């Protein structure tokens, strides 16, 4: 397969995408977004509870570290989307990773079963982040990681609803508009899905049309 850069992929109207020819393997890559969202929330709550029972973290530390994890997630989401999911397929390995991790979604944006990582991957990812943050900040990870995971869950919620529902007539409409532009007009803009914050800071918001 000759892999394309994402800005060269044309969206298709098909509602089902296939990652593997083997039906069992392919089924394992499908998931309704509610399952990984629920897992992330459960793990976040579990890590918080463990921290309250087995660490010396204070309430004030939780009040600082958990929101910090949420903010760091929003930056991580932006950087991953821009620099990893949209990396140029300069060799076969990069092409395979880019297409299967994200290009497939751009080609089949109406496939609601590929709007989130499958459950097994979510379990691995949740504990991987906890392990990494423990190496960096010790027991503070039990307050920081839940905020990070709640941010991830929020991102998956937004990503699902902007693909599954019509935009509302309020301030949240901008999330639908930006993500629609990202998919159908300019894949090199609007990398923030759950928030336009970092697009604003790094100047990657969709360009406004001028008369």
3D architecture notes:
By secondary structure, the protein is an all-alpha fold. It has a domain of 143 residues. Helices cover 62% and strands 0% of the residues. The protein has eight helices and no strands. Helix 3 crosses helix 6 and helix 5 packs antiparallel against helix 6. The radius of gyration is 18 Å and the shape is globular. The chain starts with 22 loop residues before the first helix and ends in a 10-residue tail after the last helix. The mean pLDDT is 92.
Question: Brief description of this entry?
Answer:
The protein is built from eight helices and no strands.
List the helices and strands and how they pair.
Elements: H1 23-28, H2 34-54, H3 59-85, H4 92-107, H5 119-137, H6 141-164, H7 173-184, H8 197-201
Elements, N to C (H/E):
HHHHHHHH
Distance between the termini: 42 Å
**Beta-strand residue fraction:** under 5%
Poorly predicted runs of 5 or more residues: none
Oligomer: single chain
Which structural class should the secondary elements be placed in? mainly alpha
